[in-house]
Design goal:
The chain is built from eight helices and no strands. By secondary structure, it is an all-alpha fold. Keywords: Sigma factor, Transcription, Transcription regulation.
Length: 188
């Protein structure tokens, strides 16, 4: 998520040192959607994903005095989200977590032409469907790096895998998406 990223260090300093609610609000608006999407990839439930993302943000606020000690708060937040998501999965292991309402399409495309809007919407839908067809870890790695703008190292830390494994998952994801989209648009 490289669009309009706030100065994270400044926000964290204001939150930790001055209990700045306005800085926390900026952090919340910037980080919550990424945490939600990440949790949704694991949980396939809007409600649980919102709960996890909210719990992470609450945890950051409650522990704000210690945030300056954290090397990378963004990675820290994703690790909390991962752990809470895994806890939720084990808690709800026997329940069906997927509903038709959980399908989320969220990409902002700039276009003024209705035809272009239609084409972009169709392309976005195909890309989202192709992304959903990726194996679990491939999908997570792709979303964390390509949609949330995390580095390979940050992604490896969040998923508790090596950087080389992250690279391998991303290469696999891009190859599969390329193949799927070429077939979809008759480019093969």
């Amino acid at each position: 998520m490289t669009k309009h990223s706030p100065d994270l260090n400044s926000l964290i300093s204001h939150i930790a040192l001055y209990d700045s609610e306005s800085s926390y609000e900026q952090l919340f608006k910037w980080l919550f959607p990424s945490l939600y999407r990440f949790s949704f990839c694991l949980l396939k439930s809007r409600e649980l994903s919102e709960e996890v993302a909210s719990d992470v943000m609450i945890s950051l606020w409650k522990n704000r005095q210690k945030l300056l000690e954290v090397e990378n708060v963004r990675v820290y937040a994703f690790v909390i989200a991962r752990n809470l998501s895994l806890n939720a999965l084990s808690k709800h292991a026997r329940q069906e977590l997927v509903s038709i309402d959980d399908i989320q399409v969220e990409v902002a495309l700039d276009s003024l032409n209705p035809e272009q809007l239609l084409i972009n919407g169709e392309l976005k839908k195909k890309l989202e469907q192709a992304t959903q067809s990726l194996p679990g870890k491939c999908q997570l790695v792709f979303k964390l790096i390509k949609e949330d703008g995390l580095s390979y190292k940050e992604t490896a830390s969040i998923l508790n895998i090596s950087v080389k494994t992250v690279d391998a998952h991303l290469v696999t994801a891009v190859k599969k998406l390329t193949t799927i989209l070429k077939m979809e648009f008759n480019l093969m």
